[in-house]
Structures are given as structure tokens and as C-alpha cells.
Design goal:
- The structure is a single chain.
- This protein has 2 domains: 2-86 and 164-214, Butyryl-CoA Dehydrogenase, subunit A, domain 3, CATH 1.20.140.160; 226-348, Nuclear Transport Factor 2, Chain: A (Roll).
- The longest helix is centred in the N-terminal third of the chain and has 23 residues, at 14-36.
- Helix 3 crosses helix 4 (66-84).
- Strands 1, 2, 3, 4, 5, 6, 7 and 8 form an 8-stranded mixed beta sheet that branches.
- It has helices at 2-10, 14-36, 39-55, 66-84, 130-134, 155-161, 166-177, 182-189, 193-214, 226-240, 244-249, 269-278, and strands at 118-119, 251-258, 264-267, 287-295, 298-306, 313-324, 327-334, 347-348.
- It has 12 helices and 8 strands.
- It comes from Streptacidiphilus fuscans.
- Belongs to the sigma-70 factor family. ECF subfamily.
- Pfam families: Sigma70_r2, Sigma70_r4_2, SnoaL_2.
């Protein structure tokens, strides 16, 4: 079947080409997302990949599978994007004041804002809707993989990967996530096998250091489990009730709060409590609704705050949480621009 589609596609049949690449579109998009950390960049790069594949069909000799051929194109397109894009932490003076968590406040002024635990490096980070994960036909990694599919799409993993230099990032994802062998990875990247082995060793060491500094390894609660739902209910009650004490009590001692594209990051319950307490809280029904969704295999919500003039509830961003048996280990707030990817409406029916 594949050979027939390939022959027809080479003769200029666009429908045959679409049928040839469609089974791999979802995993290619996810691959680009892991490489780039941004869903928008991943989608743009995916379109470049498909165009390059269409234009390069004559050069595909069939020595590898169509999937491997497409991964080669996708990886190299991502590497080109990473090498030509300069991503830097903006100066604090350039950071805008926009609605933030909890309860839809604005970020405190420089005078009122508590000192952040650190400035983040991955300000371009965006969430990945679970709706797109559900469409993947097979998420089982290859035999060489070290990360399970669920872990390899988590925000913690994607964030850590962004710290790696481009070549190390590509090698780690191809080897430890997708499970390509060293020789296959070398051929995909146009490197020697020894160069791949060396890059992988350095990448693994960096990942271990970054992730151990970020938080100790702990299991996540099973998606859809009673334990996850119970913690979610308690979290939503504290968040919508604007109860900072109850919210902080649900968090682990080493929890993180992040707000890309703002560079401020807060670590530990003491710093998080100071940040939440310093925010400007609206007096009446600050977060009137939290519409549940999922991102990166994690619980997430669309946040809605009340317009005091009209009473209409407007979207105030997407909040993604990491749940562990010990409590909430991370909160990441994203801007309203990502809400359409989750099918979240701009406004929501009011509840209070």
C-alpha cells in the first residue's frame, strides 16, 4: 500500500502524498514541539516539513521507512529554526503587566512584587493540548527509549530539554524518546556514531542536573484517577475561593510557579505564598470559572474573570498543574492566546 501511494505521489498525485504522510502528522507535530517548546513554532515547522517532503519525493530512495525519512526532515528543520532564532530573557523593565494567577490579578508592581526565586530561561514555552495526543495512532517508543511517552510530553521534560544545545537536544529526543539506535540517529543527523554517543552523554548529564535542581523525581497521579480528581476539586475550590492559605497548603514544599512569557519563577511554598499574597486580587468573584481541560498529559483549566463593568466572564489564560501524591508540585500559567488550541471560549457563562 505504501509503495503504491509513493509511486502515485511521485507522479504528482497530491491526494496520494497526503495519504502517505497523514499517519505520521501527529507524531511529527509532537516531535517538533519537543524540539522547539512552542506549539505555534511546531505547527509552522510541520508545514515546512510537509512541503520539503513533497518537494523532495524524488530524492527518497526507500532505504529507510517513510516515518524515518520524515523524522530526518523534521529534525533538521527544527535544528535550522533553533540555530536561526535567538531566544533571550527580556529585561525586567520590558515585562508587561497582564492578568496572572491566582484569581486573575495583575502582576504586582516592581516595588510590591516579591523577589523571584530565579528568572526563567524558557519564556517561549507553550502547552500541548491532550486532544492532539489522543489522535496519535501509537505512542509506544522504540526499544532504545529511556523515557515513557507520558513523561516525554510533560511540561517538566519539555522545559528541561529546551536548555540543551540544538544537537544535544536532537540526539536525546531521537535516542531516549523515539528510541532510534545510535547508528540510525547518526545517519538521521549526518553525524558520526561517536559524535552521537558523546552528545547523548552530555545531554543526559545536563537533563539530570536540570531536573534534579528543578524538583526531585516523583510519580504523577494517574490521569483520571480518583486521587487526581479529589486533588483537582480541592485545588479549584481554593483557587476560585481566592484562599491563598488553602492553595499553598495543597502544594509540595518544593513546588514551582511559572508564568511564561514572564521571566519570574517562584520556588517553595514560602515564596509562592508571598507572590500570591502580593497580587492585586479583585474583590468580587475574581475567578468565576475554571473550565477543565488537559495539557501535556496534566490537569489544566481555562481561567475566567469577571468584567466589573459588564459582568461578562472573560478568559484570563490557561493554567496547567503537575499533581503528585504529595500535592501540587507545579503551576504554569499561559496567556489567553493559547486558549483556542484547547477549544476554550473567549467568554463563559457566569456562575456567581
Amino acid at each position: 500500500m505504501t509503495d503504491n501511494l509513493l509511486q502515485r505521489a511521485r507522479s504528482g498525485d497530491r491526494d496520494a502524498f497526503a495519504a502517505l504522510v497523514e499517519p505520521y502528522r501527529g507524531e511529527l507535530q509532537l516531535h517538533c514541539y519537543r524540539m522547539l517548546g512552542s506549539l505555534q513554532d511546531a505547527e509552522d515547522t510541520l508545514q515546512e516539513v510537509l512541503l520539503a517532503a513533497w518537494m523532495g519525493l524524488e530524492g527518497f530512495e526507500g532505504r529507510s521507512s517513510v516515518r524515518t525519512w520524515l523524522h530526518r526532515i523534521a529534525t533538521n528543520r527544527c535544528l535550522n529554526a533553533l540555530r536561526t532564532t535567538r531566544r533571550q530573557v527580556p529585561a525586567e523593565s520590558a515585562v508587561p503587566s497582564v492578568p496572572r494567577v491566582p484569581s486573575g490579578p495583575s502582576v504586582p508592581s516592581a516595588a510590591a512584587r516579591p523577589e523571584p526565586s530565579r528568572l526563567g530561561e524558557v519564556l517561549w514555552l507553550q502547552p500541548f493540548p491532550d486532544l492532539l495526543l489522543d489522535g496519535l495512532p501509537d505512542q509506544n517508543p522504540g526499544p532504545e527509549a529511556r523515557y515513557e511517552s507520558r513523561e516525554a510530553v510533560s511540561l517538566a521534560f519539555v522545559t528541561a530539554v529546551q536548555v540543551l544545545p540544538p544537537n544535544q537536544r536532537a540526539v536525546l529526543i531521537l535516542r531516549d524518546v523515539l528510541g532510534y539506535r545510535a547508528a540510525e540517529t547518526a545517519e538521521l543527523l549526518g553525524l558520526t556514531e561517536s559524535a552521537v554517543t558523546s552528545a547523548l552523554k552530555r545531554a543526559r548529564a545536563t537533563m539530570e542536573a536540570v531536573r534534579s535542581d528543578d524538583r526531585p523525581d516523583r510519580p504523577a497521579l494517574a490521569p483520571g484517577s480518583p486521587e487526581e480528581q479529589e486533588l483537582a476539586d480541592r485545588f479549584v475550590a481554593a483557587f476560585t475561593g481566592d484562599d491563598v492559605s488553602a492553595l499553598v497548603a495543597l502544594m509540595t514544599d518544593d513546588a514551582w510557579v511559572r508564568m511564561p512569557p514572564l521571566p519570574f519563577e517562584y520556588h517553595g511554598t514560602e515564596a509562592i505564598a508571598r507572590f500570591f499574597s502580593a497580587t492585586e486580587v479583585h474583590p468580587a468573584c475574581p475567578v468565576a470559572r475554571m473550565l477543565p481541560t488537559r495539557a501535556n498529559g496534566q490537569p489544566a483549566w481555562g481561567l475566567y474573570v469577571r468584567d466589573t463593568a459588564t459582568g461578562v466572564l472573560h478568559g484570563a489564560g490557561v493554567l496547567v498543574a503537575a499533581f503528585s501524591p504529595e500535592g501540587v508540585s507545579a503551576l504554569t500559567h499561559f496567556e489567553t492566546t493559547v486558549a483556542p488550541w484547547f477549544g476554550l471560549p473567549r467568554t463563559a457563562p457566569e456562575l456567581c
